[in-house]
Design a protein that fits this description.
single chain; alpha/beta; Rossmann fold; 7 strands
């Protein structure tokens, strides 16, 4: 009986954390599927443009799957994941403790105040209104040539370098942009 109460309490806590973050952010944490993640990785070049110390930012890193992929593919670049939902952030941190990556970190905070001027790549899976707000931030902070990779949601008025379709049940779109030259 005690074990059942503990399990029930844990389940209720998880539901409360997800519900709470959904109310605060306006969107529930949705992981990127493995097929979409593979499509996103396929859109990226083998070497990032610009300085070798350019950072990779994942804005809304969720459960950390994409950030881990990026850290493995680009071991010479620091990968920083921003997440405001407690449960996905905690899961990512726990996974990082179990599978350490020297070039990967997760921050439990909003990316709104982050300075992205040292980015070589910014990765997003955010709803359309957030993408439009970010477009202004990108235009102000990203140096020409920095890449922006978006899952599902395009940046209005930006012309993608590449647009791929994932082989998932939703035929999810993946958009790759280059700051500066690709802006309309």
């Amino acid at each position: 009986m005690t074990l059942e109460i503990i399990v029930l309490a844990i389940v209720l806590l998880v539901i409360a954390l997800i519900f709470g973050s959904t109310v605060l952010t306006g969107i529930s944490p949705v992981p990127t599927s493995p097929r979409v993640r593979r499509t996103m990785m396929a859109a990226l070049p083998g070497r990032l443009p610009g300085e070798s110390e350019a950072r990779i930012y994942e804005l809304g890193s969720g459960w950390g799957g994409m950030a881990f992929e990026l850290a493995g593919r680009y071991p010479n670049h620091q990968v920083i994941g921003y997440e405001v939902s407690l449960l996905p952030w905690a899961f990512s941190r726990l996974r990082l403790m179990v599978q350490p990556r020297a070039n990967l970190s997760f921050l439990w905070e909003s990316f709104a105040g982050a300075n992205l001027s040292d980015a070589g790549l910014v990765v997003c899976y955010l709803f359309p209104s957030a993408m439009q707000e970010l477009a202004v931030k990108f235009e102000q902070e990203l140096h020409p040539g920095a890449l922006v990779l978006s899952n599902t949601f395009a940046i209005r008025d930006w012309r993608p370098l590449d647009e791929l379709t994932a082989m998932d049940q939703y035929a999810s779109k993946v958009y790759l942009y280059e700051a500066g030259e690709q802006c309309s």
